[in-house]
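step: validate -> pass
step: tokenize input -> pass
step: predict -> running
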Amino acid sequence: MRIGLFATCLGDTLFPDAVRATALLLARLGHEVVFPPEQTCCGQMHVNTGYQREPVPLVRNFADTFGDASIDAVVMPSGSCAGSVRHQHEIVAERYGDPALRTAVAGVRAKTYELSELLVDVLGVTDVGAWFPHRVTYHPTCHSLRMLRVGDKPLRLLRAVEGIELVELEQADSCCGFGGTFALKNADTSAAMLRDKMRHVTATGADVCTAGDSSCLMHIGGGLSRIGAGTRTLHLAQVLAATRTAPYALTEAVR
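step: predict -> pass
step: emit ->
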């Protein structure tokens, strides 16, 4: 399969290792991964903040870039960006686009997936040949859980990882408090939600807290680092990309 990789803004600027891990993982599974250099922001942050007309050029660029018929599927290491493409792009196109944009958006959204969706639902694989001999807990991010409804797909992938000790996270489906600009506009509420999430994460005694969104991991990881917790944060793609011959050095994990 020829798979187009969308890096996302956070992946491009702060967490490139999660993007590289996604590419390495898919290539290891025998697929051709292409990275269109024309890609830009998907426009999620504009829509989430109430600016629905402004991201029209971004939505159009995404549809033009990844709508290429030679690309069989589009993947991104982010449930929130995948949710934006699958749901928000249609809203923007319907309200402020033209017929051509609406057609293009419909075509590309049908082949756009978050990483765990692509692996389990499209490629039909749960055991990706990963090796990660560490104690791990999983945080299901809000957009992946509620908008994309990925369910237990990430957990099914993690359970198949060789050497892993997967520990259940109490109140796992509770938001970590990030929510993009929510964390800035409602800082006190966001901090309180983060404290709850950190309490549950540290109670697991996990070496690593993993998730499918770098944004949530940035929020949780920042909090954990400030309290000197021993738990690191690491994107799901990086856990799945690790193997016996190319192991992940946990000391390099992003806090």
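step: describe -> The chain has a mean pLDDT of 95.
step: cleanup -> pass
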